[in-house]
Amino acid sequence: MAPSRSGGLRVPESRFLMSGGPVGPDRAALWAMAHAERAALADDLADLDDDQWGRPSLCGSWTVEDVLAHLTAAASVGRVRWVTSVLGARFDFDKHNERRKAEHLGKTPAETLALFRAIIPSTTSAPGPTAAWLGEVIVHAQDIRRPLGLGYTPSIEATTAVAEFYASRDFTVPGRTLTEGLRLEATDGPFTTGTGPLISGTTIALTMAMAGRAAYCDDLTGPGAPALTDRVTAGTVDG
Q1: pLDDT over 60 (residue 15)
Q2: In this structure, are residues 55 and 67 in contact, taking their beta carbons and an 8 Å threshold?
């Protein structure tokens, strides 16, 4: 997922970023959750065979191995390098993402996984709020797990922080636009947002739908679900 051009702006890292509501996890807590989710993903992938590594993910044309290399790149390219790369790609974020992903693909899937394990404790990121980079880990991990049938669910605390961030603004994903005029309520946690026809589902299903993953719309219920599904399926998913 590529940040929007407003990505260099600093914003408060509160739960309800646009409404000034209760303060959520601070920067250190968000990074700790990202590290935990990276470690969980690495463990989930430890025993994959070559067929599984080459399986299509939920992330456009990328395979499982491609998405993992993208996550490694996201935790390896700091702000200056990111700006230089985006300028070099002339703001073509697909090209930027492909170039950086290619740098972090190993010669074998095992090497790609080893490279990912090495960045588990990283706090390096592109410009933008830390919640966005926790979201990068949460969403892309599910892009990998869902096609593989892996049943791990990220922590409610981490997923709630990402869901609240996505609902508050369009940054890396069009979460606020996708949910405008709709009411979202999690069935397994405290996340709620918006007004209008109700959509219910698990926190991870709501988060993935806000990230544009149509596969997760099937997990949602309520009178507002068809509208969100239509908006998601009309869009596209990039890296």
Answers
A1: no
A2: no
Average the pLDDT over each of 4-18, 65-79, 127-141 and give the range with the smallest value.
4-18
- Adjacent-strand bridge partners of 200: 185, 221
- What SS3 state is found at 192? strand
Q: What is the pLDDT of residues 83-103, one digit of tens each?
A: 575 566 565 656 656 777 778
Q: Which residue has the higher pLDDT, 20 or 159?
A: 159
CA atoms within 13 A on the CB side of 7: 23
Helical H segments across the chain, by residue range: 27-44, 50-53, 64-74, 79-88, 93-103, 109-118, 130-148, 156-168, 175-179, 203-210, 225-234
**Which pair of structure tokens corresponds to residue 68?**
């993992």
For 137, the token pair is 């880990």
Distance CA 95, CA 109 (A): 22
CB atoms within 10 A of CB 121: 13
Taking the C-alpha atoms of residue 178 and residue 158, their distance in angstroms, rounded to an integer, is 21
How far apart (Å, rounded) are the C-alpha atoms in residues 151 and 85?
A: 35
Q: What is the dihedral of CA 132, 86, 81, 102, to 10 degrees?
A: 90
Instruction: Calculate helix-pair angle for 156-168, 27-44, nearest 10 degrees.
Output: 120
Strands 192-193 and 183-186: antiparallel
In one-letter notation, the amino acid at residue 158 is A
Q: Are 31 and 123 in contact (CB under 8 A)?
A: yes
Helix (H, G, I), strand (E, B) or coil at 217: helix
Q: How far apart are CA 6 and CA 25, in angstroms?
A: 22
Question: Residues in the chain, how many?
Answer: 239
